[in-house]
Automatic annotation (TrEMBL):
Name under which the protein is recorded: NrdH-redoxin
Organism of provenance: Asanoa siamensis
SUPFAM superfamilies to which the protein is assigned, alphabetical: Thioredoxin-like
PANTHER family for this protein: GLUTAREDOXIN, GLUTAREDOXIN-LIKE PROTEIN NRDH
Stretches assigned to the Glutaredoxin domain: 3-58
Length: 81
């Protein structure tokens, strides 16, 4: 499952969530302010920064603040791999 690391106040996160919903893409949201382990993960893939939205894909790869187009392209690439 696609995972979005987010915060409640992140405007970019809200925008990407609405785009994922519109595209019918399933995902789980984890608030890094409520889950210290997820905040550690986000920092591990973002050079020590808590940058959100950070997306984690089923193959273990991550994208930081991606566009919906980038998410869709990566998901399509995973399906054909």
């Amino acid at each position: 499952m696609l995972t979005m690391y987010s915060t409640s106040w992140c405007g970019y996160c809200h925008r990407l969530r609405s785009q994922l919903d519109r595209e019918g893409i399933a995902y789980e949201v984890i608030d890094i302010e409520r889950d210290p382990a997820s905040a550690d993960y986000v920092m591990s893939v973002n050079g020590g920064n808590q940058t959100v939205p950070t997306m984690r894909f089923d193959d273990g790869t991550a994208m930081t603040n991606p566009s919906i187009t980038q998410v869709k392209q990566h998901l399509a690439a995973l399906e054909t791999a």
